[in-house]
Amino acid sequence: MGNSEPVISFEKADIAGGDNTVIYGLDMQVRPGDFMYIVGKVGTGKTSIIRAIIAENRLAGGHGNVCGYDLGSIKENEIPYLRRRLGVVFQDFQLLMDRSVEDNLRFVLKATGWKDERETDRRIDAVLDAVGMKSKSHKMPSQLSGGEQQRVAIARALLNRPEVIIADEPTGNLDPETADGIMRLLTRINRENGTAIVMVTHNLALAEKYPGRMMVCGNEECIENTPADNGQE
């Protein structure tokens, strides 16, 4: 996989957070099959990188490319197409509470252009099965535990067969055992599908248990932490 084109590439990118630049000179490449953590203290720009990846925040300088879209020149009407090639998982799940699990997923597929009902049903079944939630498709989100809601959120992220899943503190609201289950699920998706995963987390213990590449944010920069940085060979 080393020769494959990056799905995310930043070169000397300045990352904005609101009106301010929070990270200068970001160099980061994510290739198919990568599992990358972005770690750092609160306020060091981790989530701002996520917002740049999904084109919610414009770059303050430098270059960025996500799934073939140039972040410096992307047009407003192209942003929804970029986001269809990404799966995004949030800390607070962001499910629609007024409809069932199945209808949450159906809503996303309709919004992204799926018209064939049979194909839609098959895709919903497939992603719920992949996250172990097929038997709960009729449930309302309020009837599910936090871990189950996050599994549904991951199923939603898988719907359009994304090249990369962006996960912003996906275990932040979960107890350790449930968080561990979510990590096992994400690593399985990464391994079996070759889906790249970029995960913001403050939980270094999880990152050590499920190893991946690591970008460390601090002092207005975010740089890759190699094994040698940890005194390991």
Automatic annotation (TrEMBL):
Cleaved signal peptide residues: none
Coiled coil start-end: none
Membrane spanning residue stretches: none
GO terms for MF: ATP binding; ATP hydrolysis activity; transmembrane transporter activity
Keywords per UniProt: ATP-binding, Nucleotide-binding
Record SMART domains: AAA
Domain ABC transporter: 8-233
Pfam families, per the entry: ABC_tran
GO cellular component annotations of the record: plasma membrane
UniProt-listed InterPro entries: AAA+_ATPase, ABC_transporter-like_ATP-bd, ABC_transporter-like_CS, ABC_transpr_LolD-like, P-loop_NTPase
Protein name: ATP-binding cassette domain-containing protein
Organism lineage string: Bacteria, Pseudomonadati, Bacteroidota, Bacteroidia, Bacteroidales
